[in-house]
Amino acid sequence: MTATRTITTTAAACAGLALLLGACAPITPFARPTPTPTASSPTPGPTPTPAPSPTRSTPMPECNGRITTVDETAQFAPGKNPNEPTFVISKVGIENGAMYAAIVGGWPDGYPGWIKDRLYVGEPKHVPTIGTFTLLDITTAQAVYGHGSATFCFEPDPDFEVSSTI
What we know:
The protein is mainly beta. 12% of the residues lie in helices and 33% in strands. The longest helix has 20 residues, at 2-21.
């Protein structure tokens, strides 16, 4: 008897809450009248379309390596050793219609392979003894304190041992 009473009380409380929130209110369709031109008003025209988002000026480059996406400020370690070489992608954005991402990293001592540069979509950047990075696409941050991401093709040099996880 107590379980039945608890269920009934809970159901009544939920129904009351739904009524309070307006969940059970009937929905009446609202018809928008079609504007009719008059002598003093202009003829309605088509709704302007939003400006297209920036597009690539060059076709998507072919990738003969591994395609990977890295979040902005995250580390990318393409080698068998997860500690070296490592790269950080930052400052993902669009400038004058061109998508870019900053990249910095390489071997810890900087020699023989190190990069600190900006990648632009379709423009390959080679890091000696490691490989070539070609930016394919970006996603900008969706919030003020959010992070974007960069998708790129990594083509390792012939002697570079690539991790099996990328």
